[in-house]
Write a structure and sequence with these properties.
By secondary structure, this protein is of the alpha+beta class. The protein is 45% helix and 18% strand. The protein contains 8 helices and 5 strands, in the order H-H-H-H-E-H-E-H-E-E-E-H-H. It has a 5-stranded mixed sheet. Helix 1 crosses helix 2. The longest helix is centred in the first third of the chain and has 25 residues.
Length: 210
């Protein structure tokens, strides 16, 4: 590939990532959906390669810095506080916060994703039933791209005055070790209760990066 062709391809990847980032921040669209919608919106062929998540994350952070710098840090803090509430409620199942709320790119439109590592895959569901929590069972892609069971519920954020989606992803206890391997940038891909508490002690005026 020539230098000019490579530069054009890189520019196209950035354009797709920027379009996806706008949808993620302004509409609360999930990253995978946002990337596919961005390709369609830009009138590109359906088989156009998708930008990887690191590139989209950079675009999301840039968009937040440009357009949401005054509001996003406090929204992020509110979501992390709500996540901590549910992590404490589900403490018996070794909860780890992941996704945009952990990585610091969440806004009030973002959902909360908490991984639970259970000896018995039904035990977390029983705990919700015992608490009289309304939830919907389902499945979604897990940390290795596999389908995992998920318990989805709605929880009120007093600070945001909104109902926030909370998704509890159910893993086997044996999956815990692999869940903590650093990502491509050397960061922890998710954090436990202590790590989330530490994030909440940081200055809310800046976008936090675990």
């Amino acid at each position: 590939m020539s230098g000019i062709a490579a530069a054009m391809e890189n520019a196209l990847v950035i354009e797709i990532a920027n379009a996806a980032a706008r949808m993620v921040v302004e509409e609360g669209v999930e990253w995978g959906v946002a990337k596919r919608r961005a390709i369609k919106q830009l009138g590109l062929p359906a088989r156009t390669p998708l930008p990887d998540n690191d590139i989209v994350e950079d675009a999301v952070r840039e968009y937040i810095g440009l357009f949401c710098a005054e509001t996003q840090p406090l929204e992020l803090r509110a979501l992390r506080e709500l996540a901590l509430v549910w992590m404490q409620r589900m403490q018996a199942f070794r909860p780890y916060l992941g996704g945009a709320v952990w990585h610091g790119t969440a806004t009030r439109l973002s959902d909360i994703y908490i991984a639970l590592f259970c000896d018995d895959p039904k035990s977390a569901e029983i705990a919700l039933i015992d608490r009289n929590v309304n939830y919907e069972p389902g499945s979604m892609k897990g940390m290795r791209g596999e389908l995992v069971d998920v318990l989805s519920l709605s929880s009120h954020s007093r600070e945001l005055n909104e109902e926030i989606g909370v998704h509890l992803l159910i893993y086997d206890l044996d999956d815990l070790r692999g869940a903590l391997r650093p990502d491509a940038r050397g960061r922890a891909p998710r954090g436990d209760i202590a790590a989330v508490r530490q994030l909440l002690q940081q200055d809310p005026s800046s976008i936090s990066k675990p």
